[in-house]
TrEMBL record:
Enzyme class, broadest EC rank: transferase
Naturally occurring in which organism (per UniProt): Hyphobacterium vulgare
Signal sequence range: none
NCBIfam families xref list: PRK09289.1, PRK13020.1, ribE
UniProt-listed CDD domains: Riboflavin_synthase_like
Lumazine-binding repeats: 1-99, 100-196
InterPro entries (UniProt xref): ATP_synth_asu-like_sf (IPR023366), Lumazine-bd (IPR001783), Lumazine-bd_dom (IPR026017), Riboflavin_synthase-like_b-brl (IPR017938)
Associated pathway: Cofactor biosynthesis; riboflavin biosynthesis; riboflavin from 2-hydroxy-3-oxobutyl phosphate and 5-amino-6-(D-ribitylamino)uracil: step 2/2
Function: Catalyzes the dismutation of two molecules of 6,7-dimethyl-8-ribityllumazine, resulting in the formation of riboflavin and 5-amino-6-(D-ribitylamino)uracil.
Keywords per UniProt: Repeat, Riboflavin biosynthesis, Transferase
Entry's Gene Ontology molecular function annotations: riboflavin synthase activity
Catalytic activity: 2 6,7-dimethyl-8-(1-D-ribityl)lumazine + H(+) = 5-amino-6-(D-ribitylamino)uracil + riboflavin
Name of the protein: Riboflavin synthase
Keyword Transferase appears in the UniProt entry: yes
Amino acid sequence: MFTGLVSAVGEIVSVEAGDVHRFAVRSPYAAGGIELGASISHAGACLTVTSVKADGEGAIHTVEVSPETLARTTLGQWCQGSRVNLERSLKMGDELGGHLVTGHVDGIGMVRVVERDGEWTRIGIAMPEALARFIAEKGSIAVDGVSLTVNTASAETFSVMIIPHTATVTTLGALKAGDAVNLEVDLLARYAARLAQFEKAAK
């Protein structure tokens, strides 16, 4: 479980393609603080650490990605030099500063527009039709693993506003029209929609 508060931006240093893709990721995390089998969110996708080694004051860890995950996320587009948002898993007692994020990507969105409004940035994203009922104004959504508040929402698109700090410490500040992003809808919205479905069927 995660909060959607990115704690580092990693860099893909190597890609090993095959039945299982293996990615090596450089991060500022201390190698001694990453255990084998640990869960780390990568651009919103929860992945398991399969190896780790020190790299200066930081570390290089590897993760393995299945064909299913590659097909349902943007991870198949990663190449050497790609930058990815990272978040360590939530521990008991940690502050929940964003919203509950599972690290299970629900779909891929497409950036339609990026507009500057003073120091703020508005990003308009086209969403898969199946996710529209889970996304509402003032609700929460994770975009590439970043917890954000939905600013506006229609049947096909939604928008978010990015503060300067978020643009600086995550990959969102570099987004442009045409970029693909991982989306995870709010867990509470998912259960509310499921409950409404059963209530409707019972009538």
